[in-house]
Amino acid sequence: ARNDQFFAEALIYWEMCVAFVHKEPIIPGREKTNDKTNYNEARTIGTKVMPHPWTGVGPRAQVLFAEVGRLVRNFRAISSPLSYGATSEHVDPTQIITAAMEFEEELLGIRWPAVDDLVDVQDNLTGKLDFIMVAESTRCSALLEIYRVFPNILHNRLLKNADVTGISSQFFFPYCGGTLLHHDPRDPTTWLTSLARHILLDLIGSVPPTSGTRPLQLLIILTAAAELRLSGPTPAFSLDVLRARNLAMTRLEELLARLPSKPIFMIIKLVKEVWRRFDIGDSNVFWLDVMHENGWQTVIG
Q1: Can you give the pTM of this predicted structure?
Q2: DSSP helix/strand/coil, 49
Q3: From residue 209, how far is each of 85, 217, 223 by CA, in Å?
Q4: Three-class SS of residue 168?
């Protein structure tokens, strides 16, 4: 059973890597689990959690990230069927939005094991906290994609969590170093950029670049980097965005030297093009659209 789960989690990672680029229809109920194939929790040895090389301690977060990728891809194909190589007649927008709301609720409910509950993997370069930070960044990245593509879901969430002054708190982000900014629920771009900055500076930035978790970070870095708009409410905010951009590009270039170079080269090209469009005033550009418009699809992992 332990070997079966190890193999199943390897497939979870592979599915997450290809979900945003593989032309595949949504199959209702596929993301639901059953008692016979429940690989949602990380493996345990006795009372300890054993991190997996490709899913770490967050296999369910990766399953949901893959499902979000499929939802996003199919939803964007409705308005750009030629770019995405798909037609919209097989896509039910209501079904997609309902699924996105369900995934958001589940992602918000995920909790990670304590550091002391993890098995030491006997790797001097990989600390136990690295696995938790990567799992949390996976969860936040999946939520970032939901909120970017389905802004009404973000709007509703911000209203639910607003305090009496109408300002959103850090609510479901336990590792957030500061309040995520949003000034107008009808224009959530500042909040989205703030979440992307949190993913890169607070989470990925806390993981050493030599950590053995670095292959798990590629899709996370891409999705977060692709929301880093320089225009912000204060100079300090824009400076933080620049810091996050620098960290993202530095990590991508480090991965370029350690992993198969062609996919990462394509991702660097994609991120730089998204930033170029942001910087000339196109604040609504979305990385997945740019990737498909230019035929830059690649395995993201």
Answers
A1: 0.88
A2: strand
A3: 36, 10, 18
A4: strand
**Locus of tokens 């993981």:** 207
Q: In whole angstroms, give the CA distance from residue 101 to residue 79.
A: 21
- For residue 267, is pLDDT > 70? yes
Per-residue pLDDT at 43 exceeds 70: no
What is the C-alpha separation between 148 and 196, in angstroms, rounded?
A: 11
Nearest by Cα to 133 from 216, 66, 195, 196: 216
Burial class (CB in 10 A: 0-12, 13-18, 19+), 29: exposed
In whole angstroms, give the CA distance from residue 276 to residue 286.
Answer: 12
CB atoms within 10 A of CB 172: 16
Q: What is the pLDDT of residues 187-240, one digit of tens each?
A: 688 889 989 999 999 999 999 999 999 888 999 999 999 999 998 778 888 999
Query: Cβ distance 78 to 93 under 8 Å?
Result: yes
Among residues 181, 146, 148, 164, the alpha carbon closest in space to that of 67 is found at 146
149-172 pLDDT tens trace: 999 998 888 777 665 445 544 455
Backbone angle region of 162, left / alpha / beta, with phi > 0 → left and psi within -120 to 50 → alpha: beta
Show Cβ contacts of residue 275 under 8 Å, excluding neighbours closer than 6 positions.
Answer: 225, 228, 245
What pLDDT score was predicted for residue 271? 98
Return the SS3 of 63: helix
Q: How far is CA 145 from CA 8, 128, 219, 240, in A?
A: 25, 27, 11, 21
